[in-house]
Amino acid sequence: MTGPLRRRGPRPLPLHLGLAGMRAVAATTSLGLPPPPPSPGAPPWPTGWPNWNAGWPISKAGQAERGRILADLAAAGHAPDALARSVVTRLLRADRALIAGMAGYRRHPYSREAPDPPAIWAEGGSRLRDFGGDGPAVLFVPSLVNRAYVLDLVPERSLMRWLPGQGFRTLLLDWGWPGEAERHFTLTDYVAGRLERALAAAPGPVVLAGYCMGGLLAIAAALRRPDRVRALALLATPWDFHAGPDGPRRARTAAALVPGLETLMEPTGALPVDTIQSLFAMLDPFGVAQKFRAFARLDPTGERARLFVALEDWLNDGIPLPAPVARQCLAGWYGRNEPGRLAWRIAGQVMDPAAWAGPAFVAIPERDRIVPPASAAAAAARLPAAVTHIAAGGHIGMVAGAGAETALWQPLLAWLRGL
Fold first, then answer.
1. CA distance 235 to 408
2. What pLDDT, in 10s, does the model give residues 189-237?
3. Quick one: which of 369, 366, 372 has its CA closest to 247?
4. Using one digit for the tens of pLDDT, what is the confidence trace for 312-347?
5. Are 375 and 212 in contact (CB under 8 A)?
6. What's residue 27's pLDDT?
7. What is d(CA 162, CA 308) in angstroms, rounded to the nearest whole number?
8. Are 106 and 7 in contact (CB under 8 A)?
9. Model confidence over 241-272: pLDDT tens digits?
10. Three-class SS of the chain
11. Above 70 in pLDDT, residue 31?
12. Region 165-171: what's the mean pLDDT?
């Protein structure tokens, strides 16, 4: 695709390119083979990489597999360097596809055109957006680290624009960009202050629906203001941050990061967007390169390409996280697992889902890399009257993907109608 550059992403670009390079180095060094001699028409072997046989150790199983492949190649009459050349050819092809996908994304003509609906309440940079509809009000609370419009991605992938047509008034709390005041906020300031004042401005009592991190904030607000909340919906919401086979490792990693992140937060009082993006990228280090290679194979004028770009634009349109909140989330939620241990407090009150006696709906994506299903299931287990829904899809696909209406919207609607 040709044309002017329209965007800088994927952010941070050097990290994603570096991870792709690391994958190539790992693949070649783990071969344990010397560089093949040049031959006509063969791709050039990368030079300047130190010590081909060191770096990434090869397991016994890997050594056995390498030996099997080499034996098969020799039996078929191939030269000893055929494996190395084949791997390098595949790597170069993958690199070309990655660059093509990133370039195509950066030049794609898509731009977000859906207008923001009017706000019925505002405070600082935050707005309570009213998408209209007649009937009981459902107020959605998104995460603090991403823009709220993931729930209103494009008109045909907008839960916010679909639900009003089903008999519900739909509201979305857009946290906005944190200004000078918000950069001193704690989680108590967001919940006991801003969220509760938004609840007071809503036509209530409402169904309070929290997505991802917003689900924890919704739990806290519902426990503190049950007079303003008639039911609680949690969408891909973590609770036990040490749950799942990888939970303890994630917790140790997050806690260990906090001292080093202080230097990055000190100039602005917030965790920068690119740092947050880097933390998310490390959950699946090679996933970004893989999806951009796949994007390179799409018709750039097609609907799938347009939706890919819309979602990537949202992912790259992040929000800085106020430093006090970043410390509480990384050290308190992940490191010390305060929600899971029932040690998380808002304005001094312990937050325990078991204290919520009203109706609850818990949607758990079965392929969620950001919130392990076991973490989300821990909240459902503590809610006395929870309806648990296992949704086909991932963390974002469940709410905004091509199959979102089947995966989440319709089951959520059925629960809402049954209240």
1. 9
2. 999 999 999 999 999 899 999 999 999 999 999 999 999 999 999 999 9
3. 372
4. 999 999 999 999 999 999 999 999 999 999 999 999
5. no
6. 66
7. 20
8. yes
9. 999 888 888 888 888 999 999 999 999 999 99
10. CCCCCCCCCCCCHHHHHHHHHHHHHHHHHCCCCCCCCCCCCCCCCCCCCCCCCCCCCCCHHHHHHHHHHHHHHHHCCCCCCHHHHHHHHHHHHHHHHHHHHHHHHHHCCCCCCCCCCCEEEEECCEEEEECCCCCCEEEEECCCCCCHHHHHCCHHHCHHHHHHHHCCEEEEEECCCCCCCHHHCCHHHHHHHHHHHHHHHCCCCEEEEEECHHHHHHHHHHHHCCCCEEEEEEECCCCCCCCCCCHHHHHHHHHHHHHHHHHHHCCCCEECHHHHHHHHHCCCCCHHHHHHHHHHCCCCCCHHHHHHHHHHHHHHCCCCEEHHHHHHHHHHHHHCCCCCCCCCEECCEECCHHHCCCCEEEEEECCCCCCCHHHHHHHHHHCCCEEEEEECCCCCHHHHCCCHHHHHHHHHHHHHHCC
11. no
12. 98
Q: Evaluate the omega torsion of the peptide bond into residue 34 and state whether it is cis, within 30 degrees of 0.
A: no
| The pLDDT of residue 20 is above 90 | no
Percent of the chain at pLDDT above 90? 71
pLDDT score of 80? 63
Residue written as token pair 């046989």: 53
Looking at per-residue pLDDT, the higher value among 20 and 367 belongs to: 367
Give the chain's domains with CATH numbers.
13-45+53-107 (no CATH), 119-244+320-417 (3.40.50.1820)
Q: Of 127, 175, 371, 146, which Cα lies nearest the Cα of 273? A: 146
**409-to-155, 208, 382 alpha-carbon distances in Å:** 14, 15, 24
